[in-house]
Amino acid sequence: MQKASLTILGCGSALPTRKNTPSCQILELRGKQYMIDCGEGSQIRMRQMNFKASRLGHIFISHLHGDHCFGLIGLISSFGMLGRTAELHLHAQPDLEKLLRPQLEYFCEGMSYEVVFHSIDPYKHQLIFEDRSVSVYSIPLKHRVACCGFLFEEKARDRNIRRDMIDFYNIPIWQIPAIKKGSDFQTESGEIIPNQNLTTAPIPPKRYAYCSDTAYHEKIIPYVQGVDCLYHEATFSGAEALRAQSTKHSTARQAAEIARKAQVGKLIIGHLSARYSDQNLIWKEAKEVFENTLLASDMTSYEL
Amino acid sequence: MQKASLTILGCGSALPTRKNTPSCQILELRGKQYMIDCGEGSQIRMRQMNFKASRLGHIFISHLHGDHCFGLIGLISSFGMLGRTAELHLHAQPDLEKLLRPQLEYFCEGMSYEVVFHSIDPYKHQLIFEDRSVSVYSIPLKHRVACCGFLFEEKARDRNIRRDMIDFYNIPIWQIPAIKKGSDFQTESGEIIPNQNLTTAPIPPKRYAYCSDTAYHEKIIPYVQGVDCLYHEATFSGAEALRAQSTKHSTARQAAEIARKAQVGKLIIGHLSARYSDQNLIWKEAKEVFENTLLASDMTSYEL
Fold first, then answer.
1. How far apart are CA B47 and CA A15, in angstroms?
2. pLDDT tens-digit series, residues A42-56
3. Do the Cβ atoms of B16 and A43 come within 8 Å?
């Protein structure tokens, strides 16, 4: 059974520090990898963590501030040098294409693969992508510029067929996919074996939400309600609440309020500011409101 | 006495590795810092090594391949967030401005300081910049695209005045600058004291040359003749000599040949390829030809 996991490559905010590079994550679901944001140094972090370029097909960019997208050109360029042939899909606001195209033409001429741009409307909550494993929805956030988070909803998995039942009823291989989808089985003698005798329930599909950058914004609560894991920015401590408000960022407590109200499984707070030498301050503030809070950390994987 | 030093922030080649990020160095002369090339992650390396943005005034870009300039936009943007007010001067081929301007307009609107572009002709060996401490010359290299290295020549320092002589002859303070420049001193009784009795020779000015990226190119030898330190690319080992030739890079041995023929003080070989897990192979090849060869290493400082 392939695990669903989130790897944080960078969880810093605008200014990188010794500890944190800018925003970048890789969500892994059923063996596929989806990147969320791509700050400067993301390809370097990928290398450091042994991520293979070939398994990454889609990158989702929340907004066009440098700490969320300056790593794209280097990553795209290196994928080319590595001989990638599969398309790479970028899901972002249309301005990204305007900004990247001239760079791609100059630096990546004759590249071995194609970059495909998909336009996101950050003001709408809507399905922006789906494949066999996952549906991805945009979540409008409240930032200084147009910005959206992302909700990743894993699709329902097939039921697990019981090996002992395959042998017992002598189930032909060709019928197994249908049974995994929920069909009953008819034996040669005509007996109907109900699906529930043949299969066990799959693990429930995972839901992950990424909300960065944003001020405290209760409108996102219905979208992230009950997700297994919520990554929410927590750029400031409560002492800087006014600054959070004016720059349209959240305090740690506000991130935790969203998590509490949306009854999420766990909260990871990130987009950590360079101003705090002791990040545990931020973490403690959030934990007071929502106990199951984790402090994000660069180059760390989390099981969903 | 302020030391002259070179700090290598990144000495990798196109593909970053766990160990090496792309090209970036900071040359420090008389308290001033000059950056050479600015691959992705350079601002992160600066942070990791506690370099202050405010002391950097000039950046020299050898050529427009991504691993030598993708770090600029992030660095420029962060300097703005840090409230820099002093101009930042970029010395590069004119295409850099075409590529960067739209990004600066989009990402760095209303920034607190100005970026000033200075155009380099990479096909000419000429003075491209000077201030009170240093003269910088371009060195035409031989690469797949237009590319030049840089020769930094420290200007002659003032002579050191002897404190005991100041007291002995009761030299007025206002005359000291002239004496440091080489003037003699006339006592009240009219006696002429020759400068050599009053001063000691300054330390000889330093010369540093940066040559990356380039194929083996003997034409650079007169330009780098006798420099205290030569940084020369050594992307390949001798086994890949053909590949070095076709991609217009150098082997370690070729880099050392240049150093030997130019009788430099020491050679640092860099632009290290991701393909070699044991970089000492490269180093040994160069040392066979030129004994005083150092293998470049990220985040390492070298006294000139």
1. 9
2. 999 999 999 998 899
3. yes
**By three-state DSSP, how is residue A122 classified?**
coil
Output the furthest CA–CA distance in chain A (Å, rounded): 75
Phi–psi pair at A275, nearest 5 degrees: -75, -20
For residue B97, the tally of other CB atoms under 10 A from its CB is 16
More reliable by pLDDT, A1 or B304: B304
| Encoded amino acid at B133, one letter | S
Task: Break chain A into its structural domains and give their ranges.
Answer: 5-157+203-303, 160-200
- Closest CA–CA distance from residue A48 to any residue of chain B (Å): 5
Residue B84, number of CB atoms within 10 A of its CB: 18
Report the residue of A44, A46, A48 to disrupt the B interface, i.e. the one with the largest count of B CBs within 10 Å: A44
CATH 3.60.15.10 fits B5-157+203-301, yes or no: yes
Residue B48's pLDDT band (boundaries 50, 70, 90)? very high
Q: Give the best residue of B46, B78, B97 to mutate against chain A (max A CB count within 10 A).
A: B78
Distance from CA of B79 to the nearest CA of A (A): 9
CA gap A131, A140 in Å, rounded:
22
User: Where residue A3 falls among pLDDT bands split at 50, 70, 90?
Assistant: confident
For residue A153, list its beta bridge partners. Answer: A135, A207
pLDDT at residue A2, as a whole number: 65
* Residue numbers of A annotated as active site: 67
Determine the distance in angstroms separating the CA of B74 from the nearest CA of chain A, rounded to an integer: 7
Q: Please state the rounded mean pLDDT for residues B159-172.
A: 94
Question: Hunting for tokens 């007025």 — which residue is that?
Answer: B172
Q: Which CATH architecture has domain A5-157+203-303?
A: 4-Layer Sandwich (3.60)
Taking the model in full, what pTM does it have? 0.93
For residues A64-93, average pLDDT: 97
- Of B115, B119, B11, the C-alpha closest to B57 is B115
Question: Per the omega criterion (within 30 degrees of 0), is the bond before B213 cis?
Answer: yes
Q: Please tell me which of the candidates B41, B99, B103 has its beta carbon nearest to residue A40.
A: B41
- Taking contacts as CB-CB distances below 8 angstroms, the residues of chain B near A77 are 66, 70
